[in-house]
């Protein structure tokens, strides 16, 4: 007999704002993560406390959790304000804080669950075990981990594990990239990343031979683990996270609906996992993640190192391939392919210089396309669609609703008439009222009217699964009385659900479990005294200030990544040791120059600023 405990599976969606958050919930998210008024790792995705309160109130009706991203590094003069924000969102009913800066743990935090952001560089068993022992309630693992590495962590820990399954990929280990801070004084660890990894670079050998010219050599495709979800369930992931706190509502809705369907299929087949929230979402369109912004897709390192994780020709949204240009006319071109093109679509293609550019479709006549510009169109070229107007309209104008099924009973007793409701979570509400009841002239029609009016839940979050009428006589009621009774019951039950799914309190108590290392360099990201105190309490005897407080960073390691340009060029040093004659390699563009080093033991590439 299988006695393994049942695990709760959570689909975690991003929210740039209140609108995106509600769209995520309506399309099936079990939890939503959102930034507050400050201190979130996406500086341009802040939200007012009023909006967060509205989102929490809506989310909790479905048992959906709301996590607040408070995951930037903090200077000493910011800790108090960050702590105050933590208390404010706690008072609003937030379900957890996502943090990066350990200095926050040395402040008087409210009793709210704390999640370790991926920015805390959670790629080893020792680190995850430490965070669990400190008292973190959930740990966001590094995207670079394989399912085997995740399983190893799971077997030695009990803390819930969170893992990205979709969206943009940082080429560097999260929390360990200092390129933006070095170049533009815009720290990625403080939510200000300028994304230098998406720029063009050239690559030359020690002898000046150019291996690549003006390519986006550090730009990766987008993550898509649609085909690996059950593999991650088996590895021990509990929270399946979608990246995209800067993405718009149509992206969040489409991608959330896609993964909701896939996870539900898995949950239905198994008896060891259950869903983390309530309600059923049926999208009014067919979700297709390939139609939302993407740079092409990769499964990254889920099964270990693989080719094709890079997107060096362009960091832009290429879209889905739809066919080839067959003929070119003066103001139109003819396309061969099976995809229907519509007015208003956005098409993209690569120029002769392999630059991704695009056009807008003004009108079509069969397979003839009349665009707003013919510049760059040539016979035989591949065409992509990066904006499907019809699909986008169907997402933006969708009527998707999230519903909770209920049973409703109208019964008669000595005190009058009682209307009761019971939902799929087992929560019950009832009200008893005296109604103006008259004997029905047509009992069958009267009963039908009662059932119809009681079941009218269309604009609410509820859907009537069964309606039972238990009356002693064949009564007739006025429609307005039945509607009033139903509305009063629904309002009562909404309040019950709101109270039932309020956030759980969890205080973190300071301890002194030893950190895996006794000495820390700038990559520990310590930029305030309380963070120093935290690590000292956990056995660190020597620690450097983080990059943002370093006086001299000229020779610093700006990035460590599992993306290897030698591997990409089919010159992995493990397989082709003769390629060492090319070293050192220099990565450069018109403004900046970097030296590349290769840690083959750990299969990592290191980027340093060239002197």
TrEMBL record:
Q: Peptidase U32 collagenase domain spans which residues? A: 383-497
- Cross-referenced InterPro entries, in alphabetical order? Pept_U32_collagenase, Peptidase_U32, RNA/ubiquinone_mod_enzymes
Q: Name one matching Pfam family.
A: DUF3656
Q: Which domain of life is it from?
A: Bacteria
Q: What PANTHER family does the annotation carry?
A: 23S RRNA 5-HYDROXYCYTIDINE C2501 SYNTHASE, PEPTIDASE U32 FAMILY
- Protein name according to UniProt: U32 family peptidase
């Amino acid at each position: 007999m299988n006695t393994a405990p049942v695990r709760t599976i959570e689909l975690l969606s991003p929210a740039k704002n209140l609108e995106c958050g509600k769209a995520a919930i309506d399309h099936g998210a079990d939890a939503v993560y959102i930034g507050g008024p400050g201190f979130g790792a996406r500086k341009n995705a802040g939200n007012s406390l009023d909006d967060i309160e509205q989102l929490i109130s809506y989310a909790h009706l479905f048992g959906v959790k709301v996590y607040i991203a408070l995951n930037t590094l903090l200077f000493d003069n910011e800790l108090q304000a960050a702590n105050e924000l933590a208390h404010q969102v706690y008072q609003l009913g937030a379900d957890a804080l996502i943090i990066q800066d350990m200095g926050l743990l040395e402040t008087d935090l409210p009793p709210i669950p704390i999640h370790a952001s991926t920015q805390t560089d959670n790629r080893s068993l020792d680190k995850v075990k430490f965070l669990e022992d400190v008292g973190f309630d959930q740990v966001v693992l590094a995207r670079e981990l394989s399912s085997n590495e995740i399983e190893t962590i799971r077997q030695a820990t009990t803390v819930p594990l969170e893992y990205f399954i979709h969206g943009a990929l940082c080429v560097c280990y999260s929390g360990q990239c200092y390129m933006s801070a070095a170049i533009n004084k815009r720290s990625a660890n403080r939510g200000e990343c300028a994304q230098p990894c998406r720029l063009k670079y050239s690559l030359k050998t020690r002898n000046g031979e150019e291996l690549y010219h003006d390519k986006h050599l550090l730009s990766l495709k987008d993550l898509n683990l649609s085909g690996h979800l059950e593999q991650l369930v088996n590895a021990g992931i509990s929270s399946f996270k979608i990246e995209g706190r800067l993405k718009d509502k149509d992206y969040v809705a489409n991608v959330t609906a896609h993964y909701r369907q896939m996870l539900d299929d898995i949950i239905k087949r198994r008896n060891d996992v259950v869903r983390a929230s309530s309600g059923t979402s049926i999208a009014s369109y067919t979700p297709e993640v390939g139609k939302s912004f993407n740079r092409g897709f990769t499964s990254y390192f889920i099964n270990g190192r693989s080719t094709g994780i890079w997107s060096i020709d362009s960091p832009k949204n290429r879209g889905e391939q739809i066919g080839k240009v067959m003929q070119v006319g003066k103001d139109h071109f003819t396309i061969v392919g099976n995809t229907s093109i519509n007015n208003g679509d956005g098409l993209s293609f690569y120029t002769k210089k392999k630059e991704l550019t695009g056009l807008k479709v003004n009108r079509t006549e069969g397979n003839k396309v009349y665009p707003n510009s013919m510049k760059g169109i040539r016979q035989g070229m591949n065409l992509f669609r990066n904006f499907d107007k019809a699909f986008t309209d169907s997402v933006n104008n969708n009527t998707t609703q999230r519903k909770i099924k209920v049973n409703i009973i109208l019964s008669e007793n000595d005190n009058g008439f009682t209307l009761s409701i019971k939902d799929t979570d087992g929560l019950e509400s009832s009200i008893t009222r005296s109604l103006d009841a008259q004997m029905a002239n047509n009992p069958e029609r009267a009963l039908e009217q009662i059932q119809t009016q009681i079941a009218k839940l269309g604009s609410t979050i509820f859907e009537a699964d069964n309606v039972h009428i238990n009356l002693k006589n064949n009564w007739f009621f006025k429609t307005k009385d039945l509607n009033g009774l139903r509305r009063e019951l629904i309002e009562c039950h909404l309040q019950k659900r709101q109270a039932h799914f309020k956030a759980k309190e969890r205080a973190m108590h300071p301890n002194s479990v030893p950190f895996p290392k006794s000495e820390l360099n700038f990559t520990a990201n310590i930029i305030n005294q309380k963070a120093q105190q935290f690590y000292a309490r956990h056995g660190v005897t020597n620690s450097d200030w983080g990059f943002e407080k370093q006086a001299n960073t000229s020779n610093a390691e700006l990035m460590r990544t599992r993306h290897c340009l030698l591997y990409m060029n089919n010159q992995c040093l493990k397989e082709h040791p003769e390629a060492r004659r090319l070293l050192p390699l220099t990565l450069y563009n018109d403004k900046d120059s970097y030296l590349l080093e290769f840690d083959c033991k750990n299969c990592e590439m290191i980027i340093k600023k060239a002197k």
